[in-house]
Design brief:
The structure is a homodimer of 198-residue chains. Chain A is mainly α and 198 residues long. Chain A has 2 domains: 52 residues, Arc Repressor Mutant, subunit A, CATH 1.10.10; 123 residues, Tetracycline Repressor, domain 2 (Orthogonal Bundle). Helices cover 71% and strands 0% of the residues of chain A. Chain A contains 9 helices and no strands. The longest helix of chain A has 27 residues. Chain A is elongated and about 60 Å long. At the A-B interface, helix 6, helix 8 and helix 9 of A face helix 6, helix 8 and helix 9 of B. The structure holds a DNA duplex (18 and 18 nucleotides). Chains A, B: It comes from Nesterenkonia rhizosphaerae. Chains A, B: This is HTH tetR-type domain-containing protein. Chains A, B: InterPro entries: Homeodomain-like_sf, HTH-type_TetR-like_transc_reg, HTH_TetR, Tet_transcr_reg_TetR-rel_C_sf.
DNA sequence: GTCTATAAGGTGATAGAC
DNA sequence: GTCTATCACCTTATAGAC
């Protein structure tokens, strides 16, 4: 059972290889995009053969899924902590700021997160993207006594898209002022959870 | 020279075949995404062989580029007219509204436009995406005498991302209220070209 | 348990039949 | 001028050597 993908008790070297493969996959997605990833590419970077990769993971899809989950887990941990520390009223802003910060500090993770959502590859439930933010928005409105003048879901969709776009532009043009864009983004969408007739 | 991609004077049947191939490519991108497109897929839909496709277009990349240009041209025509009719002060709002309207009315075109930007495939100059809107924003600020409190570029990046996200959600969930989301989006970003200390 | 050798199928592109 | 037959490559995955 050593070749199980979700093996609970993996040996030391097994876990090391798995981690290495995942790292290489993340790097590859960053450089060539989701579609540009192949087993040979991963294997070459890791200094092993394609089949060796397929020993540690049952299939190619399992490899990129594992890589995605790794990236997602780090993001969720970072954003989750920031949101918890902020409290309900400031949670939405903390969500946006921490997500932008984390992915700008881990540029390699950005493309994978974005393509996992927009791309047709690895088609996931899109509600996983906007639902967390939508909940924070509803909670913030309640905590502030703000009248919910518009759907929290569509607000979350809008804000999420804006975040992605800013991150993508930071990737494509290193000279783009991501900090200023982040501030502007926050200022624009604050009425969603703050107050305004809109 | 009949097999030229950009042949100026193509025969009738040539043009018909080209159009048919382009239509099938657009449909295929819509269904399987940019990465899911193959010559065999296109050929199968068109009822011809791969090589027949490659007679009309020199390469696979040329096929999808032609399909993209076709989609882009229709979008630009629609948005361009709306913007011209609106006048400088209302141009940004007309841009956003007409783009949302056009792509919601031509759902098949949506995924191609979005993946052409975010994806690593067909990597284009990203400034082509935000520059037009950024110019409209600058012009609107001038026409209204509004102080440019923030970068028009980053504003255009934010707005463009929000548009994409709303369109994508409309694709993924037909029950999603795209009209309401469009209104909310406009209301949120209006301060960019209207007035506000932000 | 770890990985090499090999297979089976799909890809984009070409040479040449009609 | 239009398209069929073919090619060389690269993909994922498996069987079995060590």
């Amino acid at each position: 059972m050593a070749s199980m993908d979700s093996g609970k008790a993996a040996t030391f070297t097994q876990q090391a290889r798995r981690d290495q493969i995942i790292d290489m996959t993340i790097a590859l997605v960053d450089e060539k995009g989701y579609a540009g990833v192949s087993l040979s590419g991963i294997a070459e970077r890791a200094g092993i053969t394609k089949a060796a990769v397929l020993y540690h993971f049952s299939t190619k899809a399992a490899v990129v899924e594992a890589a995605y989950q790794h990236v997602l887990q780090l993001l969720v941990a970072h954003v989750g902590k920031a949101v918890d520390d902020a409290g309900p009223a400031q949670a939405p802003e903390a969500y946006v700021r921490s997500m932008l910060r984390h992915l700008r500090e881990n540029r390699q993770h950005t493309r994978m997160m974005i393509e996992a959502m927009s791309g047709h590859e690895g088609r996931r439930d899109t509600s996983a993207r906007w639902r967390p933010l939508a909940e924070l928005i509803r909670a913030a409105r309640a905590a502030r006594g703000v009248d919910p003048h518009a759907s929290a879901r569509s607000a979350a969709v809008i804000i999420g898209g804006a975040i992605d776009s800013v991150l993508l532009e930071c990737l494509n043009d290193p000279d783009f002022d991501g900090d200023a864009a982040a501030d502007q983004l926050i200022n624009l969408v604050r009425p969603v959870w703050s107050a305004e007739s809109a």
